[in-house]
Specification:
By secondary structure, this protein is an alpha/beta fold. 43% of the residues lie in helices and 16% in strands. The chain has helices at residues 11-18, 22-29, 37-50, 56-62, 79-94, 108-119, 135-142, 166-179, 195-210, 228-237, 252-264, 283-286, 298-314; strands at 68-73, 98-103, 125-128, 146-150, 160-164, 185-190, 220-223, 246-249, 274-276, 293-295, 323-326, 329-331. The strands form three sheets. Strands 2-1-3-4-5-11 form a six-stranded parallel β-sheet, sandwiched between helices.
Amino acid sequence: MARYEIMSATIKDVAREAGVSVATVSRVLNGNCNVSEYSADKVNRAIKKLNYSPNFLGRNLRKCETNVILCIMPSSEHSLYSKIIAGMQSYASKVGYDIISASSNNTSTVEVRQMNMLFNRTVDGVVLLGTSLSAEQINELSVNYNIALCCEGVIGANVLTVAVNDEKAAYDAVMKLAEKGHRRIGFIGTNSPAISSTSREVGYKKALEDSGIAYDEKLVYKDSFDYECGAAAFDYFLTIEDRPTAVFAVSDLLAISAIHRSEDLGIRVGSDISIMGFDNIFMCEAMLPTVSTVEQPCAEMGELVIAKLIHNIRSEKDKDNAYYTVDHRLIMRHSTGD
């Protein structure tokens, strides 16, 4: 059987057909006005005759410009991330950029594979919504690539970062519970070294201290961010002789899991016990009881990190590697009796 090969015309073919230089063809393709109308007409006729398709992606890659930014999230199941990405897309579209997103599924090998899009210049920059990379690795990569962290910082990473002040946000949440008269306040946290987790625990402890409440390690349960850990924490609190009357969880998923467990056991949330989360995901308002929480301004974070990252991409001077914090907001609902 005969084999047929379809050969794509090149820019050199166009130049030869039009009887002009490759540079002239390039200027026509780029809309450069320093080309005579006669020459431009010859080039355009040659392009049409040869059915030439300019390789804009290749041209942009040679310039290291694709106008595309990659966002890598640890999981695609968290509505918090989708809100941040929506904010990123909102700003990016206004300035001629596109956002593509990928989930690493909390797997370092997957994350590194996705980062190859940055390494081979398929994208101009990357935003990490949580990462398995160490501070040393991030700092090394940032020398040659445009990297930003959003929602979750990394201790020691000298790169552009946008997040809430996790310590202050947790402090305000626990202080609110203390102001409502609670003296036995439980804490559901994680063993993760992430800034968000460790800082929220620091905020919890500081709020207790400033409220004149003695810290009791028996009121602290730490495991992971997995949903079922909230229920496990609630079961643990039931084994304590002097049980907590309120609980602060470092994520809404953990808080919601604890609430479901308490309801299964016939313990009324909002009256028998108060439970407060962190993030203000969609479920907080959709479920009953509605969940008190700390709201992260997701859209604002997404817009800010993209604005700053694009500045770094376009800047020929020193990169902006500042750590920007955005304001959080307490939202009190039925799970704390409000």
